Design the sequence.
């Protein structure tokens, strides 16, 4: 009996020890993103020790909507060439830079062991606050927002996706809604109408000789002498909405649809 109690107690202690080990977590203090790039030896100056640091420092300036920023680039290579390449990448290949930036320029000054880069940044006046944009999970959500924007007469719609959305999916979603609008299908049920009253059957037409029927068909008339039945309705015109992708690549995180170009 004592052996059984000891065995049970040992099993419980091991179980509790295992549970406590599972519950233990090690945490480390992470410095804020901004503090990682500020140069402690120079006030209001960012620090970059490699090319990726330089890109991230520029993105930090864009995120803060800074019109000017100074970056010390500690490198043995050509700081000027890297600075120009980083500016091009931020403006062309990143969501924030491609959407917000109007222009980027910089001045270069050589220092001892580093280059001093003074960037000037200008921003779009019509750009929206990215943090306030609705985040969508799929293209159907974009269709629902577009339908609402059309009904309310908005000039444009700007939306952000939770992940990079293929541009062909966005274009297909916009085109499907445009065809729906052209067809008069706005998503609401049509009003109910009374069934039409029965009309008397038209009198039977006299038979037309085969030769006359062939001549009438060649002249574009019906065999009975009337005009030929109207052709089917033409397909809707191409979608006139202008769709802009940020960044302008095969897949984008942010899309801007101009409903009134």
Sequence:
């Amino acid at each position: 009996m004592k052996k059984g109690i000891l065995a049970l107690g040992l099993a419980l202690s091991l179980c509790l020890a295992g549970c406590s080990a599972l519950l233990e977590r090690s945490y480390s203090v992470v410095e804020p993103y901004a503090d990682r790039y500020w140069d402690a030896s120079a006030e209001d100056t960012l620090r970059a020790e490699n090319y990726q640091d330089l890109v991230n420092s520029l993105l930090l300036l864009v995120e803060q909507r800074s019109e000017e920023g100074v970056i010390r680039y500690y490198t043995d290579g050509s700081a000027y060439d890297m600075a120009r390449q980083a500016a091009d990448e931020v403006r062309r290949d990143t969501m924030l830079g491609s959407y917000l930036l109007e222009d980027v320029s910089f001045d270069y000054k050589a220092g001892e062991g580093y280059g001093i880069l003074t960037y000037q940044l200008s921003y779009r006046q019509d750009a929206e606050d990215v943090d306030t944009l609705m985040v969508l999970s799929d293209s159907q959500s974009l269709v629902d927002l577009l339908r609402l924007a059309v009904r309310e007469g908005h000039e444009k719609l700007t939306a952000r996706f939770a992940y990079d959305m293929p541009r062909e999916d966005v274009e297909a979603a916009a085109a499907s809604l445009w065809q729906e609008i052209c067809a008069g299908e706005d998503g609401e049920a049509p009003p109910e109408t009374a069934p039409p009253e029965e009309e008397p059957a038209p009198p039977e037409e006299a038979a037309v000789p085969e030769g006359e029927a062939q001549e009438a068909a060649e002249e574009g008339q019906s065999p009975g002498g009337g005009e030929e039945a109207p052709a089917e309705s033409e397909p809707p015109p191409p979608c006139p909405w202008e769709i802009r992708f940020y960044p302008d690549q095969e897949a984008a995180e942010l899309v801007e649809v101009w409903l009134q170009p």
